[in-house]
Amino acid sequence: MLPGLAIMATSVATDPVEVVYESAVALVAQGAKRSVFGGAEFDYRAGQYLLVPIDLPVTGLVIEASPEVPFLAMGLAIQPAIVAALLLEGEFGELLPVQYPQATINTADEDLLDAFARLLRLLDHPEEVPIMRPMIERGFFGAC
């Protein structure tokens, strides 16, 4: 098990659920999800990611899922120390849109997909987690 890693799967669309997203990066591998925050709806689909650098109240629901093509996604809670360091370095300045700086949705590039793949491989090598996780986690922001 990797603390802060969530793997989500469902074969049915879901009803809206009110939650608080913690600082995280979430990648949709299959299907689609809708998040509502700040009065606006945001849909993200396979190959897209949601980046939430601060805790954020959200209404979320899976909008595309079936037994043949289930919704699959994974997310990683971002450690506050890394978020703070990146904020101090100005890393979020170019990353987040001015109109809604609390979150962003973009298409994942190969670097981000590779970072998620390396994270999943850590599940087979728990002894490497203390060293590799911070580097991989920091890499998410370079790839986003």
Automatic annotation (TrEMBL):
Source taxon at top rank: Bacteria
InterPro entries per record: Tscrpt_reg_HTH_AraC_N
GO biological process: regulation of DNA-templated transcription
Start and end residues of each Transcription regulator HTH AraC N-terminal domain: 2-138
Record protein name field: AraC family transcriptional regulator
Species of provenance: Caballeronia udeis
